[in-house]
Amino acid sequence: MRKIIFLTLGVLLSYALSGCYSFTGASIPPTVKTYSVQFFENRAPLVDPTLSQKFTEGLKDRISRQSPLGLTRSIGDVNFEGTIIGYRVEPVSFTSEGTTGAAEQNRLTITVQVKCTNTKDEKQSFEQSFSQFENFPKGQNLASVQQQLNQTIIDKLTTDIYNRAFSNW
Question: What is the value of pTM for the model shown?
Answer without folding.
Answer: 0.81
